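ok trying this again, last paste got cut off
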Amino acid sequence: MARTTEEDLAQLERDIRQLKIEYEQYFGGGKARPPTDIEWRIETTLKRYSDRGGEMNYAQRFRYGNLTQMYSKFRDMFRKRMKQKEEGTVQRHFGAAAREIEAERARKHVEAEKSAAAHLPFAVSWKDPDNEKKKVEQLFTAFRDAKARAGEDTESLTVEAFQKFVRQKTDELKKQKDAHEVEYIVTVEDNHARLKARVKS
């Protein structure tokens, strides 16, 4: 039994909505092939009724016109995305965009590290580290960054323990060498951070 115009238009609307869903699944990787069978069915129905416009009442013609516009809009969008897919220029979804942002941050971080590495060796000298805490903090930061670049653990490093270490080392070298000032140098050698101390003549 032949369907009525109302039934055909209702099926046409369902097909257009289903077409949109299946194309989204296809572009998202959930389907291996585009829904060409539904598209063919829609095209056939639209062509049949475009030739029978005089047989429809005003409400049916209005509904048919809206469905035609809806399908035309979706079809243009799908063809544009299909072209992008074939050319390998499909717009990335949010997840991919977020990964790209993270990759860009990582790249900048590496560049920053390379730039910092260009400033090694880092050297600073003092007579009394307790009176020149700014220099101690600068040396601590340089040593910690050098260890991080060398892939060494930095969790156990604290500025307090570092301050205590350089105070003892400074006192020891000053007594041994009878010097008034000690220089500390941070380098990265053989992928290991080094902290060297020497008296200044």
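PB: full thing came through this time. Confidence is low (pLDDT under 50) at residues 112-118.
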